[in-house]
Amino acid sequence: MKPSASPIFESPLSDFGYDITNLSAINPEYGDMSTFTALVEEAKARGFSGFRGESHVE
Q1: Where are the domains of the chain?
Q2: What is the helix (H) or strand (E) element at residue 40, kind and residue range?
Q3: Where is the Glycosyl hydrolase family 13 catalytic domain (predicted)?
Q4: What is the pTM (predicted TM-score) of this model?
């Protein structure tokens, strides 16, 4: 089983974060780009490499 997370991009959060309004900004509730960068760096240091950003619309 792989861990998963909800989207962290800027969103009004009326659809659990999948209603993204800005793909280049982190939702302020989750921090900012420097917080995300630190998270990615720490995850890589611990051997985790599964960050992906996908959103599918049908």
Answers
A1: 9-45
A2: helix 33-45
A3: 6-48
A4: 0.62
